[in-house]
Amino acid sequence: ELPENWTDTRETLLEGMLFSLKYMGMTLVEQPKGEELSAAAVKRIVATAKASGKKLQKVTLKVSPRGIVLNDSGTNELIENVSIYRISYCTADKIHDKVFAYIAQNQLNENLECHAFLCTKRKMAQAVTLTVAQAFKIAFELWQAAKEG
């Protein structure tokens, strides 16, 4: 459950907000952003996840102005650490409304990847998306302040 004023909790966000989600998978995309592009990517990921019949990996997603850190919920093992500057788009999918997805550039090969996560509720998918958007805003403010300072 999110507190009513969670969007004001700038301090919390600086530390990082945690979300427990299920990782659905990843697919490559052609462009860094776009609603139709991400919707098509999510559709592919959902279909692949369903077809595999495997249980989805439970993950903890930590969102901060530094980016997104993904850990395995069971082992707490680091899966991925994505810099906020490599994330080009994030969305709560319209059709699969419990799905949160983001597009980021792979550090090693520059590929654009869309990663999708299943949330328990639609509201949660929206909350994660808003949190990432908020993190962007703060990261940009911090960057601007550093540049001016």
UniProtKB/TrEMBL annotation:
Location(s) in or outside the cell: Cytoplasm
Key words of the record: Cholesterol metabolism, Cytoplasm, Endocytosis, Lipid metabolism, Lipoprotein, Receptor, Steroid metabolism, Sterol metabolism
GO biological process, any: endocytosis
InterPro entries attached to this UniProt entry: Adapter_Engulfment-Domain, PH-like_dom_sf, PTB/PI_dom
SUPFAM superfamilies (alphabetical): PH domain-like
Top-level lineage group: Eukaryota
GO cellular component terms attached to this protein's record: early endosome
Protein name: Low density lipoprotein receptor adapter protein 1
Organism of this sequence: Cariama cristata (Red-legged seriema)
